[in-house]
Amino acid sequence: LIIKEIETKVYQGQKPGTSGLRKRVVEFQQENYLDNFVQSIFNALPSEQVKGSLFVVGGDGRYFNKDAIQVIFKIAAANGVRKILVGQNGLLSTPAISSLVRSKQALGAILLTASHNPGGPKGDFGIKYNISNGGPAPESITNAIYQQTLSIKTIVKAENVEVRDLSKIGVYEWDGFSIEIVDSIDCYLTLMKDIFNFSQLRQLISDKRFTLKFDAMSGVTGVYAKRILSQELGLSIDNLINCEPSEDFNNGHPDPNLTYAPLLVDMMNKGLFDMGCASDGDGDRNMILGNKFFLNPSDSVAVIAANYKSIPYFQKTGLKGLARSMPTSAALEHVAKSLQVPFFEVPTGWKFFGNLMDAGQLSICGEESFGTGSDHIREKDGLWAVLCWLQILADRNQTQLSNPNDKLVSLQDIVREHWEKFGRNYYSRYDYEEVDAKGADEMMKSLLQQIQSKSLIGRKFHQDVYEIVECDDFEYFDPIDKSVSSHQGLRIKFSDGSRIIYRLSGTGSSGATIRIYFDKYDKVSLLNDPQQHLKDLIHIALDLSKLQQYTGRNEPNVIT
Ligand code: VG1
Ligand code: CO
Fold first, then answer.
1. What is the pTM of this model?
2. C-beta separation of 81 from 55 below 8 A
């Protein structure tokens, strides 16, 4: 190895957000910008751990992915890493990386993705460090990396390490360092076969009474969908859309929601398929739709949990506990109560679930932001969620599938039955993307002040139907490592249990994004339109925050 030491200067602002460091590509293209961050990761880790270690590297295939991988190779080699596993063509979904780290017992992984943010030369790039459990590094480590970025002076690089062609599976060796290009899917597929009953899934997918459409939004999941849904489970290739990974997501916004997946949403609204699914750029998110039916992610995780016995993996492991992020609807709590399993509420971001899983206290968890997962890995997992739903459907329809004249129980039938049993949490999230950061900060400050002064308590709205009984600035005490995470969102709670939550996004790359979440439980009227049902609560939220006044925005860009 020819190792060179390079002098560098500090870049301000390399602080990882909700899920890694995300910036515009042009920022990453500045001299040593990426290099500084990568070197800072190694500087933050104990050097005796790094020496001789194994790392996993891969990304969602967005623009700058391939250049970044070469930089990581060089810096990792010079810092004493023994071996790197990299996905073929540099591609690995976030869940696949998590599964590789765990099964190969790597020290950690470097993930190259800005997830659901747009890509391309004018779009975003991102980098995230995962630890040996396969999950995102906790705040103690991301903070340590950030501290390193503020004092970095030199970078070390092995100049002669380079594998320009990442298309062929194989091993490349230098003295004391090697790079192995691995199949992007194999390890993940083995895991999925262990979790689900593939022959049952195959039977459902091949049945004429059930039609499925999958949209990879030109992100990395396309390669997984082709192999798993099509080759392994027999879904016709015609039912896969946007399954070629593209550097700019085919000029799209790889965020699976009602706004950015219009093609799929339109087909499902027309009733063309029984189930429609989409995943985000790096494959950890999922949107699942029924025939003319939107499955709210907060309901999705609750229904999966309630039906855990349909899934072979949970038959083996049992249900250790359930958890959701704070702004996610309370639907999952009703399931935890009924099944009498422990329940946890953590801040937004998957990194907060890892400790509970490692401690054997958590099996299934989810976020309202189209993130669902379990302790099979330490990241949320888009394709896993799709397979869960297929498994639940296949299990529920065992009799029907063998009687060709029976009508199949549909996805929405299962959700409606769930509401009948547990009640329904009407839920919505409003996103105001790229608003002026100053206005957003001032709005949050004014809300915080109202909360801290307790002046909101006792206030009544809409003919006194709604009364505020509690409000706070959410703080999380991790029961496992005892760490404290403050300022995780502003919560307002009403006498009927309804909640309004305000947060600023931590994944954007310019301006600010305000998120407002609405949650209202109902046991009696189950089939209303959520926007209609939540109208008053939404009104109160906009009123209290004076959002329009602070931001000049009349409407959110995305409504979930
Ligand atoms: C958003 C979501 C959060 C999710 C995060 C990462 O964060 O709200 O639930 O964990 O994205 O998802 P924020 O701070 O913008 O609200 V992904 O798919 O970008 O790794
Ligand atoms: Co993602």
1. 0.93
2. yes
